[in-house]
Design the sequence.
C-alpha cells in the first residue's frame, strides 16, 4: 500500500489556511485543525482569487507553497522556514525560467 502525507490548503479572503496530516499514513489520514499561515509575524496574504498548491520544492521534507497570482499570472514560490510542525514562510520569490518570470494566463 502506498504511504503518503497529506496537506489541505485553502484560500479565504486572500489569506491561507493549511491542515496537515501529522504523520505519514498507509490508510486514510486524520487532518490536524486548519492553521492560518504566517510570513514573519503577519498572516500570509496571497491576494484574492490566487491559486495555491503544496509542494516540497527543495526536497528538505517541509511543505512549500507555489501560488499563482490572479491579477498578472505570475507564479510565486514560498519556502517553508519553520523548524516545527506548523509551516512558516519568509517572503516569496517569483518562479523563473532562464531568468524570466513564468506567467500563466489569468482573468
Sequence:
Amino acid at each position: 500500500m502506498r504511504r503518503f502525507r497529506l496537506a489541505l490548503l485553502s484560500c479565504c479572503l486572500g489569506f491561507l489556511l493549511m491542515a496537515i496530516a501529522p504523520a505519514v499514513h498507509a490508510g486514510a489520514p486524520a487532518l490536524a485543525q486548519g492553521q492560518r499561515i504566517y510570513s514573519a509575524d503577519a498572516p500570509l496574504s496571497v491576494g484574492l482569487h490566487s491559486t495555491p498548491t503544496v509542494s516540497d520544492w527543495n526536497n528538505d521534507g517541509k511543505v512549500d507553497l507555489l501560488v499563482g497570482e490572479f491579477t498578472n499570472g505570475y507564479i510565486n514560490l514560498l519556502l517553508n522556514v519553520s523548524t516545527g510542525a506548523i509551516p512558516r514562510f519568509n517572503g516569496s520569490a517569483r518562479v523563473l525560467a532562464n531568468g524570466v518570470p513564468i506567467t500563466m494566463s489569468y482573468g
In short: The longest strand covers residues 7-12. The CA atoms of residues 42 and 104 lie 28 Å apart.
